[in-house]
Structures are given as structure tokens and as C-alpha cells.
């Protein structure tokens, strides 16, 4: 299994607060993303991947393994 978002973030020396600011979201939202990467919308996943210098696949694969393959990164907003 690959590294988690938290592990990637810590390896880069970035705090959750800093990542939240870089992504333009609250710390609570960013923490949720680390716990449940399947809840990340695709545009946010792209931003996270860029900031952590990882591939989008790293996030998607983490999402599918942590959620039993049920939730993959969401596309845009759902009505």
C-alpha cells in the first residue's frame, strides 16, 4: 500500500494548517480529506497532488484502498 496523505504531507514538512491554507479550505476540511480521501473533489485532489509533489494516482489509489474501493475522488459538485 502507498503512503497516506498525512504521511506525504509530514515527509514534506508541511503542517495540516499550512496545507489547509495552500488549498484554500478550513483545517477541519483538510483533516477530513486525510481521513477520507474519497471525499476529495477532483479539483482539490489536483491541487493537493501539486502541493505535495505526488501524482493524482497516489490520492486515488489511497482513496480506493481506505474505502474498500467504494469511493474514488469525486468529480466536481454533486447536485
Largest sheet: none
What's the mean pLDDT score? 82
Category from helices, strands and their pairing: mainly alpha
Low-pLDDT segments: 69-75
SS element count, helices = 5
How many strand elements? 0
Present the secondary structure layout.
Elements: H1 5-11, H2 16-23, H3 27-35, H4 42-52, H5 56-66
Helix pairs in contact: 2-3
Detailed description of the structure:
The chain is mainly α and 79 residues long. It has 5 helices and no strands.
Q: What structural keywords apply?
A:
79 residues; mainly alpha; 5 helices; globular
Précis, in short:
This protein has helices at residues 5-11, 16-23, 27-35, 42-52, 56-66. With 79 residues, the protein is mainly α.
Amino acid at each position: 500500500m502507498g503512503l497516506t496523505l498525512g504521511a506525504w504531507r509530514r515527509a514534506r514538512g508541511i503542517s495540516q494548517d499550512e496545507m489547509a491554507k495552500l488549498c484554500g479550505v478550513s483545517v477541519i476540511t483538510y483533516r477530513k480529506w486525510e481521513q477520507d480521501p474519497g471525499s476529495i473533489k477532483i479539483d482539490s485532489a489536483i491541487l493537493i497532488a501539486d502541493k505535495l509533489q505526488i501524482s493524482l494516482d497516489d490520492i486515488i489509489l489511497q482513496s480506493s484502498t481506505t474505502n474498500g474501493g467504494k469511493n474514488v475522488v469525486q468529480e466536481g459538485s454533486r447536485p
